[in-house]
Amino acid sequence: MKDIARQSMSIKVESMDMLNGQIKMEAHASAIYLAMASWCEQNGFFTSAKFFYKQTEEEREHMMKIFKFLVDTGGSPISPEISNINHDYSSIVDVFESTLEHEVKVTTSIHNIVKKARELGDITTERFLDWFVMEQVEEENTIRDILDMIQVTGTEGVGLQMIDNQVANWID
Amino acid sequence: MELIYQSKYYTLYQAEKERRFYIDFGQKSIPMNLCQLIALRHKVMSISIEDHFDSDLNKHGFEVLLLCNKEHLFILNTLEILDLKELVEHGFSALGIAATKQIASV
Ligand SMILES: [Fe+2]
Ligand SMILES: [Fe+2]
């Protein structure tokens, strides 16, 4: 019997399902960061807004990277449905703390897919995710650095405006 | 055509020369390429069987299934959906592009 299915598809369907889940998560992240950009614009944190415009684009790129991988491997990428985007934040500190929290969730999700791909013997998917594992290290580190800067600067007096100005250091 | 997997109501075949698959639904047999088979899997797996036991969520206990870019339409009841879920699950394992049950449940 010829292995027509295997010849048409080079990853496991379970990996495809998990990667479709990750596509949704990246799209969700992109939407969250756009909402944060909106919050920053409305509250006078214009440099931070720029930072989140960049983040929203990056998350969209992550999503497309997975989308194209599914195409390349013969899988079926699913365009995700996104809803329930929070637009309320109590402060700029809240915005960045939420960002870190969200990035940690993304990291966990990617690690879980790596582990399951390994269990499935799906080396292709495991290797593909290497880039994402390292990208998450960088993203988490960026947000941690910004939170450290916030801590050092302090939020009293002109602190908030200084914080916003310094965010420019993390926009290439 | 080789038989890949047979559930109570449905049968999945592979037609090697045509490089495609057939699902025998009883009333009719439908040819599908792998993409269409994956799309079927996605639709079947997305059906919430729990809704069938809640008259607010699914009043009549039926699902409408549109296949192959709306070429075919099926109306299936709860038992048929459960059976189709089984066919899809075991069929993909038998085709060698899904984990065997053992690993999947870990
Ligand atoms: Fe991402
Ligand atoms: Fe991210």
Report what the structure shows.
The complex is a heterodimer of chains A (172) and B (106). Chain A is mainly α. In chain A, 75% of the residues lie in helices and 0% in strands. Chain A has one domain (12-76, 87-170): Up-down Bundle (Ferritin). Chain A has 7 helices and no strands. In chain A, helix 2 packs antiparallel against helix 4 (92-120). Helices cover 32% and strands 29% of the residues of chain B. Chain B has helices spanning 34-46, 78-94, 101-104; strands spanning 2-6, 11-15, 20-24, 29-32, 62-67, 72-77. Chain B has a 4-stranded antiparallel sheet. In chain B, a hairpin with a 4-residue loop joins strand 3 (20-24) and strand 4 (29-32). In chain B, helix 1 crosses helix 2. The longest helix of chain B has 17 residues, at 78-94. The model of chain B has no long low-confidence stretch (mean pLDDT 89). Bound molecules: fe (ii) ion (FE2) (2 copies). One fe (ii) ion (FE2) is lined by residues 26, 29, 59, 62, 106 of chain A.
Secondary-structure map:
The complex is a heterodimer of chains A (172) and B (106).
Chain A: H1 4-8, H2 13-42, H3 46-72, H4 92-120, H5 123-128, H6 130-153, H7 159-166
Helix pairs in contact in A: 2-3, 2-4, 4-6
Chain B: E1 2-6, E2 11-15, E3 20-24, E4 29-32, H1 34-46, E5 62-67, E6 72-77, H2 78-94, H3 101-104
The complex binds fe (ii) ion (FE2) (2 copies).
One fe (ii) ion binds at residues 29, 59, 103, 106, 139 of chain A.
Brief overview:
Chain A is 75% helix and 0% strand. Chain A has 172 residues and is an all-alpha fold.
